[in-house]
Amino acid sequence: MFVPIANEPRDYAWGSTTLLSEYLGRTASGGAEAELWLGAHPGCPAVVTAGAHAGTALGPALEALGARQPAMLLKVLAAAEPLSLQAHPDAARAREGFDREDAAGIPRDAPHRNYRDPHPKPEIIVAVTPFEALSGFRPEAQAREVVEALAAADGRVAPLLEHLAAGDALAWLLSGDAEVAPVVAGAVAAGDALTGTHPVEADTIARLSAAHPGDPGILVAMLLNRVSLAPGEALFLPAGNLHAYLSGLGIELMGPSDNVLRGGLTPKHVDVAELLAVVDPTPLDDPRLPAEPLEGGTAYRPAAPFELRRITGAHVVEGGRGLLLAVSGGTATVDGETRALAPADAAWIDAAAPFEIDAAEAWLALELDTP
């Protein structure tokens, strides 16, 4: 089965006006183009573009064909400004939270709803351009070194050192305590003093304070790893990983979910208690996900029920279910039929037999370990 699909970019305020359209050779809308969703998630489903079900959302079209729904969501993400600090639940927490909020009568599209579906949202992102992100807690000694440098430059930051020692720094920064605001102000004022010794942290403070003045997330960022990805490098963000994307273009693959627990750097709903229940505070030395070379491509294989492949030539897949996005022209041979691919073409593939994608550049998301 080869089902051609398409979608329109989502216009979140942090989106770039150029990166996504330039990469896919699309006509730019003139406004923010933040994410292009390819999948069947009801929040923004892709639409079938040819055949008997043309014009129908992918989910209902597959249901009419008697086929299974995609258990993943592929996105092109283009960030011109920082996204919110956020984490995602595991499967058990997603199910429990969804049922709890349904039982409470909270509409699924309510701004204050945390769980819009019952699914977990593990995700990976692969950089297409240089890509900046925050991902996971850094070792405590590294965080303390940065906070000590800030406190030395501006004494208002000193109370954060006490909370680092007590192990409750994140909870305190997000608590709404009146003492937090002057600590954040002190850190912003001291940011330039870090330029010589901690240039990356100085840059993070400058970026976040420009986009979200006074937000406690500016200091939460000092507790996290700042990661600079070169094109082709990837991050894996499992359940509980506190993260924020700062800038760049990337290909993102995740579970079929839009469950987001936010922790700042956003005007949207922040549920501190729920976030703290989900966040994993275990320090990470390096959150990058290594790439694996393949014939005609590269694979990114996280500890999740999917993998992402970047195709850069003739690439054969031993059957399976996947979401395809062509960046260059090429061909897809599925079920014995060869179809031409133009830049920005996309499709849902469900094939028991081997199939081949031949393109200078394309992305293929594959489901794993599904019944």
From TrEMBL:
Cofactor requirements of the protein: Zn(2+)
CDD domains attached to this UniProt entry: cupin_PMI_type_I_N
Official protein name in the record: mannose-6-phosphate isomerase
E.C. numbers: 5.3.1.8
Phosphomannose isomerase type I catalytic domain segment(s): 6-139
Positions contributing to Zn(2+) binding: 86, 88, 123, 243
GO CC, alphabetical: cytosol
Gene Ontology biological process terms from the UniProt entry: carbohydrate metabolic process; GDP-mannose biosynthetic process
Organism, as annotated: Agrococcus jenensis
